[in-house]
Amino acid sequence: MNEQILAAAREGEHHVVRFLRDLIAIPSTSSREEAVIHRIKQEMEGCGYDEVRIDPMGNILGRIGSGKKVIAYDAHVDTVDVGNPENWSVDPFTGALEDGVVYGRGACDMKGALASIVHGGRLIKQLGLEGDYTLYVVGSVQEEDCDGLCWQYIINEGKLRPDVVVITEATDLAVYRGHRGRMEIEVRTKGISCHGSAPERGVNAVYKMAPIILDIEKLNERLSGEPFLGKGTVTISDIRATSPSLCAVADSTTIHLDRRLAATDTLESAVKEIQDLPSVRNAEAEVVVLDYAVPSWKGLTYPTQKYYPTWLLPENHPVLSAGVKAFEDLFGEKPVVGRWVFSTNGVAVMGMHGIPCIGFGPGNEIYAHMATEHIPVEQLVKAAAWYAAFPVVYTACQQS
Ligand SMILES: [Zn+2]
């Protein structure tokens, strides 16, 4: 059967490539995914999915089968913007195909994987690989702005709780089992403004922030973690101050922290670390975890805290074994088992809801968000084959 799956995936290569090039040609930054969602709907319907629906947030869910075990493949459909167009040597929105490589914004993050999962579904239909499982192929929205929000919505409001979710962000065809989480935190100091010609009459909020900045730099060096995902980090990504004029003492200062969470960090521990810094106490600075509340393309706002928990699937977890076995059966070798450096929708699925996740996707994560973003066609084909094979392997593992 595995040879048949691979052969059918290779035969269908032109379908996947054409679909990917169409997807790249439709710009889809976060909250502007409507057109790309409709293109995906058309493709899923053409591939013979049993049901295709768009939820009230704007995520698209294609269903295959109606068996007992519920499996979901997740690919976000939004991309980051192009940045400075001069950095691009190809048009980011044509899906240029050259020597077996597709170029453009979203090629590897992650319209390539999206094309592969949709066509993985087509292969299941074509080869009759249905079993006692229900597969949802999900094109999710707003990931680049707020990872996991789409899945908070799908699980809490859509009442879909899969037994396993495959996050299909780029893994270079390795099987991944987690990544660090993250948080966005602000630290705010207050001052008293006065005329800049006599600063001694006021209290400068920037000076109150200065020792905090130094303490945060030192805090980063003290952070720890377990060896697989690595240690937590903290860095200052923005600083701003307010003042009635440029000839006055600053009356407030805010720093924005990008905090990456190790497996041992929690929301509470990360906030307390900052609150306990002597400089923060001395300045009576406020420590705030930020909120996200931006409407989706459907106009739905689903507010959440900017806390994206770490997740790590244990090394001996049966879902990981199923992912590895599907790879070995198809390609006759052991896959690399690893982890992402960046964050994915797994923060909600496994980080918040405890649903087992693994990662498997075409493309190399180092090209994500770059002007050289690209994906090899060979990986799209192999990924589609794995997506066709995994549900049967997983279902069999669950029964044995
Ligand atoms: Zn991504």
Polypeptide structure, described:
This protein has 400 residues and is α+β, with helices and mostly antiparallel strands. It is built from eleven helices and 20 strands. The chain has helices at 2-11, 13-24, 34-46, 107-127, 149-156, 205-222, 267-275, 278-283, 318-331, 346-352, 377-399; strands at residues 51-54, 60-64, 69-76, 97-98, 101-103, 133-140, 164-167, 175-176, 178-179, 181-190, 233-242, 252-261, 286-289, 291-292, 304-305, 307-308, 311-312, 337-338, 357-359, 374-376. The strands form six sheets. It has a six-stranded mixed sheet, with helices on both faces. Strands 10, 11, 12, 13 and 16 form a five-stranded antiparallel sheet that branches. A three-stranded antiparallel sheet has the order 4-5-20. Strand 4 and strand 5 form a beta hairpin. The radius of gyration is 23 Å and the shape is elongated. The two termini are 20 Å apart. The mean pLDDT is 97. It binds zinc ion. The site of zinc ion (ZN) has 5 residues, from helix 4.
Question: What tags apply to this protein structure?
Answer:
single chain; 400 residues; alpha+beta; 6-stranded mixed sheet; 5-stranded antiparallel sheet; 11 helices; elongated; binds zinc ion
Q: Any idea what the radius of gyration is?
A: 23 Å
Please state the overall shape, judged from the principal axes of the Cα atoms: elongated
Strand content: 15-25%
Number of strand elements:
20
Structural class: alpha+beta
How many helices? 11
- Specify the helix fraction band: 25-40%
Distance between the termini: 20 Å
Low-confidence stretches: none
Biggest beta sheet summary: 6 strands, mixed
Query: What do the pLDDT scores average to?
Result: 97
Bound molecules: zinc ion
